[in-house]
């Protein structure tokens, strides 16, 4: 089975399995999900060696009959489509230029059983923001140097007895990041390996005591209209 076949079958189980109602004719939820995936793949744009941007605004156009059937499913359908598109984009290494939105619209020019997808992204320059995710909270690294530790004077404070008051520092120059241990008592691990300092690619896990912190670089779009 090829990659496309695997995706389609997994998609069908995930989307159609989320709803008890089935449709004897017309568009199927899995076909909408596949169309969104194709649109993201077609519009993917490489902006640097390890940055691929895809649209973040999607409008799904359906015939009136298909729209009525899909609309009857309510927010459950768009929530499922959003989750699947996000999962596919993560697997492909795509980044969105802003919050993802998926809307269904009725279009008299679209035949029953078919789907058209229009997509766009936010105009303006896309910049990259370094963040640290810890215990379900996201902290933006607004400074060139960010100190993490147990002390109240750290820039990011973690409640872990295994950490020092000033445990590590993260250096970020807008493109690259590095971690340095500040002479902590128990040391620091990066992706499971104990180190004194290390570069930080996106999605790197830093372990301090029993706490995992995930360093990420995320896309931040300038204000502007979708295109």
UniProtKB/TrEMBL annotation:
Keyword Disulfide bond appears in the UniProt entry: no
SMART domains the UniProt entry points to: FHA (SM00240)
Pfam family, one: FhaA_N
Domain FHA: from-to ranges: 146-195
UniProt superkingdom: Bacteria
Signal peptide: none
Keyword terms, alphabetized: Phosphoprotein
PROSITE patterns to which the protein is assigned, alphabetical: FHA_DOMAIN (PS50006)
InterPro entries referenced in this protein's UniProt entry, alphabetically: Cell_Proc_Reg/RNA_Proc (IPR050923), FHA_dom (IPR000253), FhaA_N (IPR022128), FhaA_N_sf (IPR042287), SMAD_FHA_dom_sf (IPR008984)
Name by which UniProt lists this protein: FHA domain-containing protein
Originating organism: Microbacterium aerolatum
Species classification: Bacteria, Bacillati, Actinomycetota, Actinomycetes, Micrococcales
């Amino acid at each position: 089975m090829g990659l496309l076949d695997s995706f389609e079958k997994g998609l069908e189980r995930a989307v159609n399995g989320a709803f008890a109602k089935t449709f004897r004719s017309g568009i199927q939820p899995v076909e909408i999900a596949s169309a969104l995936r194709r649109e993201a793949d077609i519009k993917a744009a490489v902006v640097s060696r390890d940055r691929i941007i895809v649209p973040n605004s999607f409008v799904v156009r359906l015939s009136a009959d298909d729209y009525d059937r899909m609309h009857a499913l309510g927010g459950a359908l768009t929530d499922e489509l959003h989750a699947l598109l996000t999962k596919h984009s993560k697997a492909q290494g795509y980044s969105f230029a802003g919050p993802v939105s998926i809307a269904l619209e009725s279009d008299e020019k679209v035949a029953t059983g078919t789907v058209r997808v229009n997509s766009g992204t936010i105009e303006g320059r896309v910049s990259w923001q370094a963040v640290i995710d810890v215990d379900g909270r996201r902290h933006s690294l607004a400074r060139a140097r960010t100190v993490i530790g147990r002390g109240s004077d750290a820039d990011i404070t973690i409640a872990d007895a295994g950490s020092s008051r000033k445990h590590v520092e993260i250096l970020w120059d807008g493109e690259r990041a590095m971690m340095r241990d500040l002479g902590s008592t128990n040391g620091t691990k990066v992706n499971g390996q104990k180190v004194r300092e290390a570069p930080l690619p996106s999605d790197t896990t830093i372990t301090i005591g029993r706490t995992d912190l995930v360093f990420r670089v995320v896309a931040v779009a300038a204000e502007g209209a979708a295109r």
